[in-house]
Write a structure and sequence with these properties.
The protein is of the alpha+beta class. The strands form eleven sheets. It has a five-stranded mixed beta sheet, with no helix packed on it. It has a four-stranded antiparallel beta sheet with strand order 2-39-38-37, with no helix packed on it. Strand 5 (about 120) and strand 6 form a beta hairpin. The longest helix has 25 residues, at about 690-715. The model is unreliable at about 1-35 (pLDDT under 50).
């Protein structure tokens, strides 16, 4: 069987990243509008709680604290959506993963680019009002798992807040883009912490988490005063040094669920990072946070002797004033498959028979849809919304999954579904209270997990899974196609009361976009293959689609100004799928063109033709190393380079395919790996790779380039 393992080590961004330099080199606003007639982004708790009284605005990432991503607007509806046309587009600076949710309030739209750049736009015309570049070092990409994305900003009382990829939390003046304050949220810069999620602001506190579990960090979530950036509290999601007393009551609960000390002294910190999902119930005054996977992935390496390893892969309820623990529900106890619970959390009031219950809903990576009482954390129901062989079902009495022993890969390889991409990843779902349905960007994906118990924490910028790196079939088109066919994407309409699928639409591959549902009986979603589509929310019938020139992953929004309803989505391809799995993303047939796209009824704007750069392979040098050195280079490549340039040198369309290197790049290879292209996004690896390692990797790439040359010659 061809190896298709679940782990990989960090990326080797070997050639130029597709970036356009920002015109703002001062890390301040590039342009600023005249003083506004009324305060910009004068949002507070009362406005967000009463968001339905301002249906024309989109004031927080999920529109409301409940994160339903549902709009009451109806001027664009299932009868006239076919008349939608492009109103305007705005080119973003960096052609990489574009994952932000725009905020639209008080006549300004706020969007984010990759590398945490923020733009303020006129939401009617798309004109840029100001732009702020936090100047994240471009080689910081090595410290993140899944591209240099940002999922959006938060606004509060005249300020805009963005979490920068390098861990800073920055407050900007909403009217001018000038920086007001900045704080460093990272507890340990010797570890690979990153920030990609959108902040939330609750009771004057900016709440932000972080990522980096695979790279060896200890997860936490922090609250800062929105006025001045002073840290108010911090909630760690997993225990710290087991030789020291727990720091809080929550850590007293968690510590006994970890065994030994490998997660701390060999795995880099335990993981459990809170990198995306949050929701808030103002009546119960509870903040809900989703947490990520453990570090290592392999629980036998992480916590020898077992244990649930709280609070990895959990939903945790916290008091927002103090950061105190209230309750938790762990979706995957002792997670060993990268089944994060950082996926979108939605709050709703659902009627079960004659009883209405305040619930929390989540469809995490593990393939089960959870309905939980949000007051006390009691599980109401859990059913599979996607294929999942790791567990047969969830026991409603205990709330625990009943695991399939065949999916345990502690001592032997195991083919498991879902794989690390998950049955649902970060792309937000939505809930429509009119239809009672949740619209999930569902996907089918598998992985062969192969244990590597020898792994220890090996420093910043390296991955710690307790498993072998990803590998794909080489020179076997049929086998590669077989793996590709195992990845399928769907839009699923799910009834959370009956826990049954109502309808679905299927796509060419996984990694399709987040969803928006509206009172106009519509569901909007972008697709991996470069379209933006509207469906009938009740029946699933496709009503409208338009080309987007690139893969669309982000969640759309809708707003209304001067009686005109607009629909906006950020478009731009990237993230874990096209980077870490390279060639498996080829059915999407897109390239990364990053834009904000806004539509209205009767819009007549147009996009330029999509990128379709023909690739011609330059003549490649011959392999000069022995087969043994090339084989060593293969393992080193998959361990250090494949997470970005694609396993086995089979790249996706985001990062350059190294099989097409020019003679000049071959001559510069050692220097590039040493750091010559840091400013272009290619990190240096001289701290982890010896000169002979670099040469072995180079020889393997040359071998793969010659393989390609042979294939191209046989088909020409």
């Amino acid at each position: 069987m061809n190896r298709f393992a679940a782990a990989a080590l960090p990326c080797l961004l070997l050639t130029m990243v597709a970036c356009k330099p920002s015109p703002d080199k001062s890390a301040a606003a590039s342009t600023a509008p005249a003083a506004a007639a009324s305060p910009a982004a004068s949002v507070d708790a009362a406005r967000i709680i009463a968001a339905d009284k301002e249906p024309g605005s989109w004031m927080s990432t999920g529109r409301t604290y409940s994160e339903q991503r549902y709009s009451p607007l109806t001027k664009v509806n299932h009868e006239n959506v076919g008349k939608l046309g492009l109103a305007w587009s705005y080119r973003l600076d960096v052609d990489r993963a574009t994952e932000g949710t725009p905020i639209v309030v008080d006549g300004i739209m706020f969007v984010t680019h990759a590398y945490s750049i923020v733009s303020a736009l006129d939401p009617v015309t798309g004109k840029e009002l100001w732009k702020f570049d936090p100047q994240v070092p471009r080689d910081k990409a090595r410290d993140g798992c899944c591209d240099v994305a940002n999922r959006g900003v938060a606004v509060w009382k005249g300020k805009v807040y963005v979490g920068a990829y390098d861990g800073r939390l920055i407050a900007l003046d909403a009217a001018t883009g000038a920086k007001v304050w900045e704080v460093d949220t990272v507890v340990d810069h010797s570890r690979s912490y990153t920030v990609t999620g959108a902040p939330r602001i609750i009771k004057g506190k900016v709440i932000i988490g972080n990522g980096g579990a695979e790279l060896g960090v200890r997860g936490y979530i922090s609250a800062y005063d929105a006025a001045d950036g002073k840290m108010l509290w911090r909630f760690f999601t997993v225990p710290g040094d087991p030789s020291k007393p727990p720091e809080s009551e929550a850590m007293k609960i968690a510590m006994p669920t970890w065994k030994g000390s490998r997660w701390w002294d060999k795995g880099g910190g335990g993981g459990g990072t809170a990198w995306d999902s949050m929701a808030y119930d103002a009546d119960l005054d509870l903040l809900y946070v989703g947490t990520g996977n453990g570090s290592f992935w392999n629980r036998a390496s992480r916590s020898p002797g077992g244990g649930d390893n709280l609070f990895v892969s959990s939903i945790v309820a916290i008091k927002p004033d103090t950061g105190d623990y209230v309750w938790h529900y762990q979706t995957t106890p002792g997670d060993t498959w990268d089944y994060t619970a950082t996926q979108h959390i939605i709050l709703a009031d659902l009627k079960f028979g004659d009883t209405t219950r305040k619930v929390l809903m989540q469809a995490p990576k593990n393939g089960f849809f959870y309905v939980i009482d949000r007051a006390n954390g009691q599980l109401i129901s859990a059913e599979k919304f996607a294929p999942a062989n790791w567990a047969t079902h969830v026991d409603l009495k205990t709330g625990r999954p009943v695991e399939n022993p065949e999916a345990d890969w502690a001592t032997k390889p195991a083919l498991v579904s879902p794989g690390p991409l998950g049955a649902h990843n970060w792309q937000p779902m939505s809930f429509n209270p009119d239809t009672g349905l949740v619209y999930i960007p569902m996907q089918e994906a598998v992985a062969l997990f192969t244990p590597d118990p020898k792994q220890d924490f090996s420093g910043k910028g390296t991955w710690h899974m307790g498993s072998t790196p990803i590998a794909l079939p080489e020179n076997d088109a049929k086998a590669l196609q077989g793996v590709t066919d195992m990845h399928k994407g769907h839009l699923v309409a799910w009834d959370p009361v009956t826990q049954k699928e109502v309808w679905r639409q299927s796509y060419v591959t996984v990694w399709n976009g987040g969803t928006l549902s509206t009172a106009g009986n519509l569901v909007f979603q972008g697709t991996a293959d470069g379209r933006f589509v509207a469906y009938d929310a009740k029946t699933g019938s496709k009503l409208w689609e338009t080309p987007a020139n690139t893969g669309v992953m982000a969640g759309p929004v809708t707003y209304e100004i001067n009686g005109e309803q607009y629909v906006t989505v950020e478009a731009g391809w990237g993230g874990a799928f096209p980077l870490a799995l390279g060639a498996l993303s080829e059915p999407a047939k897109v390239r990364p063109e990053a834009r904000v796209l806004t539509y209205k009824i009767g819009g007549t704007a147009t996009l330029p033709p999509p990128k379709n750069e023909p690739r011609t392979q330059p003549k490649q040098p011959p392999v000069t190393a022995t087969e043994a050195v090339v084989a060593q280079g293969r393992d080193l490549y998959n361990g250090h380079c494949g997470m970005c340039h694609g396993p086995n040198a089979l790249a996706g369309s985001v990062i350059p395919d190294l099989r097409y290197m020019t003679p000049e790049k071959h001559e510069m290879f050692a220097g590039i790996v040493a750091g010559a292209y840091r400013a272009k996004g290619m990190p240096g690896f001289s701290d982890t790779l010896k000169p002979e390692d670099v040469e072995a990797i180079h020889q393997y790439i040359i071998k793969r380039a010659n393989d390609l040359q042979t294939q191209l010659g046989s088909t020409s």
